[in-house]
Amino acid sequence: MYMNAASRARVALAFMCVSACTACIREEEAPPDRRVRGGDADRGKQQIVAYGCGSCHVIPGITGANGMVGPPLTSWSQRRIIAGEVANTPDNLVYWITVPQSIEPGVAMPNLGVSDGQARDIAAYLYTLK
Questions:
Q1: What pTM value is reported for the model?
Q2: Which domain holds residue 88?
Q3: Residues of the chain with confidence (pLDDT) below 50
Q4: Count: domains in the chain
């Protein structure tokens, strides 16, 4: 994916902002390299339901999450790449959940208005999926 200098600068700024957030809640649930600072898996599960993520994705542990539009999110903590574009790291996942169109314009996943805190919670839940 080609990104011009302004786009790269916006992405870098967003990653720096995300990195500046506070301590992780429930870190023991995620592998050490997949801990989301400030994320809570229980709240993430609630956010996944509230945003209707299961209408597009299969998501283990979420009742009715059997969508066939997006990829299944099974074994998320074992994945290496997000959307075929960026490494599967907590900061990248939070950024992807918040503004997927900025990483891959035109992708089927819309920008849903998920806040940074909500994205951290959703990411924390996804990293519990082994």
A1: 0.76
A2: 5-126
A3: 9, 12-13, 15-28
A4: 1
